[in-house]
Amino acid sequence: MMKNVINWFEIYTSDFNRAKQFYKDVFKCDLIDIPMNSDRHSQMQYALFRKNENKFDLNGALVKIDEAKPGIGGTLVYFATEEITAELGRVETAGGKIIRPKLDLGEFGFIALIQDTETNLIGLRSEK
């Protein structure tokens, strides 16, 4: 059995609560706040993704920390979706923006690009 090469991601935020609400609304998933107790991380906010309604594992977190800023130009993460159209339909209502609509990649499935409320560029990918 092959494992995914990418096993964790962090999406950086400037408005932590706004970002959490965006991801909850678009992906219908829960996020769990993880308290950061050390003095070194006193300004850090961290929330882990839980499985969404489609039961996809989202192995990562939303993070607010002074050392890393959100925005286009960083790492591009693609979220697996059952069918991209559903998530795309919730993006603008949740405060995001559709950057590239659903694109057919033939035998490799479909992708789309969206911008979250923190100006991060993220991808969506589905088989159909």
From TrEMBL:
This protein's name: Glyoxalase
Pfam family, one: Glyoxalase
VOC domain ranges (all copies): 5-127
Residue ranges of coiled coil: none
